[in-house]
Amino acid sequence: MLLTALEYLGLFAFAASGALAAVRARLDVFGVIVVGLTTALGGGVIRDVLLGIHPPTTLRNWPYLAVCAATALLVFVFHPQIARLRRAVLLADALGLGVFATAGTTIALDTGAPVYAACLIGMTTGIGGGAVRDLLLREIPLVLRKEIYAVAALAGAVLVGIGHVLRLPSGPVTVVAAAAVVAVRMVALWRRGNAPVARGADPAP
Amino acid sequence: MLLTALEYLGLFAFAASGALAAVRARLDVFGVIVVGLTTALGGGVIRDVLLGIHPPTTLRNWPYLAVCAATALLVFVFHPQIARLRRAVLLADALGLGVFATAGTTIALDTGAPVYAACLIGMTTGIGGGAVRDLLLREIPLVLRKEIYAVAALAGAVLVGIGHVLRLPSGPVTVVAAAAVVAVRMVALWRRGNAPVARGADPAP
Amino acid sequence: MLLTALEYLGLFAFAASGALAAVRARLDVFGVIVVGLTTALGGGVIRDVLLGIHPPTTLRNWPYLAVCAATALLVFVFHPQIARLRRAVLLADALGLGVFATAGTTIALDTGAPVYAACLIGMTTGIGGGAVRDLLLREIPLVLRKEIYAVAALAGAVLVGIGHVLRLPSGPVTVVAAAAVVAVRMVALWRRGNAPVARGADPAP
């Protein structure tokens, strides 16, 4: 129940982040909806393809799609106001990352995947949607450029994996791990603690 | 039989569209063939991966590959003449979109996918090849920028889904739905009826 | 045993090539590791998704990931010295291409795929990782621009397929075919024998 609510919050957050990026790339209303949907549903589709769940869960539940399309449409109409809520968007994006990375790991473990593979697939679930969004919009993916993004997702996935090995109940573990991802992202954004660039390669202006 | 003929026409159209885009991006003859193949076969591979058909059908039938490679080679040799046939290329592209979106939906329904998932997978089959082409050539995908492209594919897929629910025979329904997609695309191209861009985001010059 | 050694050499080579490209794109240390991993493991993941092996083998064996991450980290620290070893990097990349294309074909044949499909999937395994690397870094994929790259991979895959049809032992055939790929790539690099660009489309400056 709590997990379902969190999942919809994650879909909402990722759909909004995709739609905002599409508005900035000057796409029309249909392009904005397609990018919003792809960002929100992409990670789950990649997860199900890797786990062999056919057809992917995210393509079988229409409420998922309805929530994402409505969110993208709202962003299209109200984007000037939303752009001002920059902190809320970043928080929502962190929440989405945390929920998808940890829930993805739990789902992979439930299908019988080994712990090691489940953690990698969980991390991929979290960062996949955003990577697809940036590829579609012809950006170098944020996950490659930004503060501790993939590492935060991996940390959450590993926490779920540890909980699984210790036979802790998966629901509470997922919530705690998702909260840990959000906390790591918030600290990273707050400190702007970008990891170092290799010597001799000046940062882009 | 009619469906098979339409399918080869779709492969031919998409291979030509991919090869033309590759020639314009100044790729060599092998690059042109690779992009032509990827554009024509990509949607079907994505469809089969989502449906769990292993290995993908399009990779098991050599006539598919032969038609696409021959088409790409012809485009490489005769591209100045073909570029002048702009209307024929756009018509063929619309035909490919219609055939792949509707046949993809029918195939998904045949494997037992729920109607809702089948429509989404059909739409993805139609627009997938072109999206991969644009990603490879580093363009913002046409599907995100152009007149009623994804919506036309979705409309065709939904028509097939409605026919399935009403238990109409799948062959004729697919042909009618494909024709509807082509008609929608033609009207959209004729009217240049681009959907609106969000307020405050000026169209690119 | 020989094959396993070759496979690790291929992972090492592709991880280094991905990490070097990421350093040049000015990514931070985490981005460099992500691109190195994606380049080295990407081809195998695509292969397993096409063959229906869930979860993908490359995500189940932690030594694969450890070798790739360590390689990427070494490249990040020592990249000025490595960049001088340009010939070694090109040789290693050719070795990786050969090993992955031929081993991918052998694995596909082992899962019962038809010879024709196995060759295509083997070629895709060889060129997949590099294509993903270039997409992530927003380049037109090398496979579309460079000397006889996809063709070399396909030639190696077809040699394995011929060996399979003639019922030759798969181990030695794979090694010979991989060596053939490396030889073709070396000759292509030595002669800079780029294939012709279409008439009227001047080569990029």
Number of domains of chain A: 1
User: Which structural class best describes the helix and strand composition of chain A?
Assistant: mainly alpha
Radius of gyration of chain A: 17 Å
Global mean pLDDT of chain A: 84
What does this structure look like?
- Three copies of one chain form a homotrimer.
- Chain A is mainly alpha-helical and 205 residues long.
- The first copy, chain A, has one domain.
- In chain A, 77% of the residues lie in helices and 0% in strands.
- Chain A has eight helices and no strands.
- Chain A has helices at residues 2-24, 29-51, 62-84, 86-110, 115-136, 142-145, 150-165, 170-191.
- In chain A, α2 (29-51) crosses α3 (62-84) and α2 runs antiparallel to α5.
- The longest helix of chain A has 25 residues, at 86-110.
- The radius of gyration of chain A is 17 Å and the shape is globular.
- The N and C termini of chain A lie far apart (46 Å).
- In chain A, 58% of the residues are buried.
- Residues 201-205 of chain A have low confidence and may be disordered.
- Chains in contact: A-B, A-C, B-C.
- Chain A binds chain B through residues 22-32, 34-35, 45, 49, 52, 54-56, 59-60, 62, 65, 76-77, 79-80, 135-138, and chain B through 49-52, 108, 113-114, 116-118, 120-121, 131, 135, 138-141, 143-145, 148-151, 194-204.
